[in-house]
Write a sequence for this structure.
DNA sequence: ACGCTTGTCTACTAAACAGGTAGAGTTAAA
DNA sequence: TTTAACTCTACCTGTTTAGTAGACAAGCGT
């Protein structure tokens, strides 16, 4: 799962992307529009500023704006930034590789093999999408529970 | 990230799959071969027994074995079982859907749209692979850091 | 029936992390 | 020089993770 903080981060960035080239957006505006606790959002945005993804303007009429055009901010980058890695296990990360604790030698670990493949598929998709993409949300739910019935129930 | 427990679970099941139809495998054998703390493994295996994925045999010459052929145990099922869902956000789960806290209405949430698509890609891959598949681990690392250079560095 | 080996179950705990909050300080436009 | 912003360090509280302890139950072989 993505942490709540990562989700807030993504939604905040989406909001800034929506207001690209419209001048700084105030923190409260983001907090209200995106339903993010105000105080927590200060922490999140400050980090994004430190990381260079967002620019802040202090003083009156200040606020935040993206540091680069939405089309240049890929979702993969955002998740790498906030989570450290796209991978589902430390040893399957391509940019922040770490040995897993209590594991087999990496060359023998099938879980690692699987997770490397999975990571690459996820990366391919997340690096294709940027903050500039309009994402259409699918219609309701219901008829989508199919395909889940399996040997296990 | 998958929790350590989920990783242990998968490796334990792989071990049982490797010894399919060779009689019960003792807990200690699994613990040693897979480098899993013995006491913790009892918890993990007991849960798998309760969930019907593994059968246990008590008494002398007892141990554990898979309840069904390895080819019928998909990785997707294992992760659904231990994590509850494949999705990266609660609202993007197909079999354990939940509203996210402090979010937008689901129909408007672009993060949800993105995560639904991602979930489906992950599911497609994880439901294609089973415990019967030999997974080849890729060669070393090194030349694989390419493709990471981006607007962000 | 006995004893050994092996799994089962409930409870507990230490440490880390998640998700926030408080509040004093700094900037810059009007 | 006021005031509406952002910034920074510190703190807090609840939950989850990763285990451990220890008494108990069940088969197998003799």
């Amino acid at each position: 799962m993505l942490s709540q903080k990562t989700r807030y981060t993504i939604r905040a960035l989406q909001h800034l992307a929506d207001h690209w080239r419209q001048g700084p957006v105030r923190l409260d505006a983001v907090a209200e529009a995106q339903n993010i606790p105000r105080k927590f959002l200060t922490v999140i945005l400050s980090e994004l500023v430190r990381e260079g993804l967002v620019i802040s303007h202090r003083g009156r009429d200040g606020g935040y704006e993206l540091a680069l055009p939405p089309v240049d901010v890929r979702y993969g980058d955002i998740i790498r930034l906030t989570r450290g890695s796209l991978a589902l296990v430390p040893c399957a990360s391509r940019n922040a590789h770490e040995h897993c604790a209590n594991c087999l030698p990496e060359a023998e670990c099938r879980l690692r093999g699987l997770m490397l493949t999975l990571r690459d598929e996820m990366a391919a998709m997340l690096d294709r999408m940027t903050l500039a993409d309009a994402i259409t949300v699918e219609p309701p739910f219901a008829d989508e529970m199919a395909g889940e019935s399996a040997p296990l129930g």
Summary: The longest strand of chain A covers residues 54-57. Confidence is low (pLDDT under 50) at residues 141-153 of chain A. The two ends of chain A are 23 Å apart (CA to CA). Residues 52 and 83 of chain A are 16 Å apart (CA to CA).
